[in-house]
């Protein structure tokens, strides 16, 4: 079965810098990867989806890449702000359109 | 357009009691998914339902857990004879059948 790995250590960066989060998958190349944001005590919020045949996707200050050779997706937040502080989850499709999630990486943006 | 609604938001049960968690999908969504999140763990898929049908229950424990999504009304995740290990946040998500799932705020279950 698919396994999604994200860096368990929190990422601390300064406001204005670019945050880069990593997501690695271990088995078959998924048809797509999704990124979600989760704040404490809340449900995940969908951010971006990137398909296997797409190299890059952008939405405002967010950018996601998908490298099937490295079995990796990178999630970038440019010009980061303290309000971007949250846990970011990577998920891949599996089974009947269900999702397999990584444990998430906490991002802390300090002013 | 209201998002996915879950209730109750917090539920406290004693060991051996039953827990019922409800989920109303987004308007126009007929696909519902339940996930469980333990502290320091990722979201784990439990069950996928469409109206009146269980499509995939491969992530659901074989005993004590059941789920339904009736023709009318919310989807319900039922846990019978709860044990301390059932304490977790339970999230419901819905979709139109496309890839993106929209999550509710979750129900935090605490078993004493």
How many strand elements of chain A?
11
Largest interface: A-B, 24 and 27 residues
Number of helices of chain A: 0
User: What is the tally of beta strands of chain B?
Assistant: 11
Oligomer: heterodimer
Helix content of chain A: under 10%
Order of helices and strands of chain B: EEEEEEEEEEE
Low-confidence stretches of chain B: none
Shape of chain A: globular
Q: In whole angstroms, how far apart are the ends of chain B?
A: 37 Å
Broad structural category of chain B = mainly beta
- pLDDT under 50 segments of chain A (min length 5)? none
Shape of chain B: globular
The major β-sheet of chain B equals:
7 strands, mixed
Mean pLDDT of chain B: 94
Span between termini of chain A: 41 Å
Helix content of chain B: under 10%
Kindly provide the radius of gyration of chain A, computed on alpha-carbon positions and rounded to a whole number of angstroms.
13 Å
Secondary-structure map:
The complex is a heterodimer of chains A (111) and B (112).
Chain A: E1 4-6, E2 11-14, E3 19-25, E4 32-38, E5 45-51, E6 56-59, E7 62-67, E8 72-77, E9 86-94, E10 98-101, E11 105-110
Parallel strand pairs in A: 2-11
Antiparallel strand pairs in A: 1-3, 3-8, 4-5, 4-9, 6-7, 7-8, 9-10, 9-11
Chain B: E1 5-7, E2 10-13, E3 19-24, E4 31-37, E5 43-50, E6 53-56, E7 65-68, E8 75-79, E9 88-95, E10 102-103, E11 107-111
Short description:
The complex is a heterodimer of chains A (111) and B (112). Chain A has 111 residues and is mainly β. Helices cover 0% and strands 57% of the residues of chain A.
